[in-house]
Design goal:
The protein has 185 residues and is α/β, with parallel strands linked by helices. 46% of the residues lie in helices and 14% in strands. The protein has a five-stranded parallel β-sheet with strand order 2-3-1-4-5. The relative contact order is 0.23.
């Protein structure tokens, strides 16, 4: 079970393909809502900390070792599906949590079981062309693995954010999400 010390009023679980803009969207939301109201949580943070401290930056080193890190993380999740979820929520006291990198059904299930109806899912989508412009290139063993495809058939997202470079459309969608978040505070 999850640590319940500072139970959140809202948990938004963001998912999407690599380079779809999950971090961009969650950071944009946090900047508008304020860090005192909203925490950005990265499930990959505890994974990377556990795997190797030097993988926390966005370096080429991380990309070179991503497949090995994913395999190690999968072994951890096989032994304990909630391991990284529990780690990432430790000590968080803000009322709104934006989990920026939800990748598996087990992640969604854990947060729903731990926090119930305050949990919502958000899918960030971007065309392959947009993702390529952001530096994405298909990597076998990464882009066809569970860490990238685990929620492709989830199909029941509460929110979908289109992030193809249309700034006006993105601002409209962020405005809708911010309105929803504020209604929960």
């Amino acid at each position: 079970m999850a640590p319940r010390g500072g139970a959140p009023r809202l948990v938004l679980l963001f998912s999407g393909k690599r380079k779809s803009g999950k971090d961009f969207v969650t950071e944009a939301l946090q900047s508008r809502l304020g860090a005192d109201v909203c925490a950005v949580l990265r499930l990959s943070g505890p994974l990377k900390e556990q795997y190797a401290q030097r993988l926390l930056d966005a370096s080429a080193y991380k990309e070179a070792y991503r497949r090995d890190m994913i395999l190690w993380g999968e072994a951890q999740r096989q032994a304990d599906p909630g391991f990284f979820c529990r780690k990432v929520v430790e000590g968080v006291c803000q009322p709104v949590w934006l989990v920026s990198d939800t990748r598996r059904l087990s992640d969604v299930q854990w947060f729903r079981e731990a926090y119930g109806s305050v949990t919502q899912t958000v899918r960030v989508v971007a065309s392959e062309q947009s993702r390529q412009q952001r530096g994405w290139a298909f990597t076998p063993g990464v882009d066809d693995g569970e860490s990238e495809c685990g929620l492709d058939n989830f199909g029941d997202f509460d929110w979908v954010v289109e992030n193809d470079g249309d700034e006006q459309r993105l601002e409209e969608q962020l405005g809708n999400l911010i309105g929803f978040v504020r209604s929960r505070l």
